[in-house]
Amino acid sequence: SSIAGNFLGGYLSLYFSYANIIFFSAFLSLISFVILPFCFQQEFATAKEQNISINYKKLLTNFNIQSFSLLTTLPYRFILAGFVLFFIPIYMHHLDYSMQKIGQTVMLFFIINAILLEPVSHIIDKYKISHYLLLLSLFIIGTSILGLFYFSDDYYHILICVGFLSVGMSISSCLQIPLIPIILAQECEKFGKGNVIAYIRTTERIGSTISGLVIAFFYKVFQSKIILILGYSNFFILFFTVLFLIKLKFQNYSETSN
User: How far apart are alpha carbons 147 and 164 in whole angstroms?
Assistant: First the structure.
């Protein structure tokens, strides 16, 4: 749906207004909202029977959970929803590229993503190098975003940057869920693995919701320099992620020694 949706959206926008496309998408989302509860009746019943309870105040004030969310899930959603799906189409439209080329560029992102998900997941399961892959993904993402600013506005240069961005985002996407029980092992034991994952996924959706508004505001203020801001911000996230992983390593070592 990610691949076909972007291609069809760019193609249909040539013949229909943006408003019609948006209303049609909202209609499909409403149908999904109505159907979804009927698909998970058994899961809802099981959760109710288990009488799951959680101290939300402690979960919301847990440093490790909030740090994980701020350093991994939120940046991923900001770049995907705010940069790839919002900024890049506007940026390319500003450069007078056709809607078809814009749709093809976004489609390329998801094609590469779909191709890499399985082999990257296999590497993660086989070699147990999740921490290093997380840092590598942040480096690739930051470098790719900065490439859009420092390279020329040639269409193929944009495709190269978007392609490498998709590689970094693919690695990050494969790590989103598997990293939670690894990095947040103690929190999963304390609050329940399902509750921690549910909270992280909720913050993802919040990031997807507000990312477009945030990117739009910064784009209005800084114009194309927002690419620099996002690129270098990603390297700041990389730096703090290293510090966070080191902190967790010393924390686990201290508790093991005691």
Answer: 10
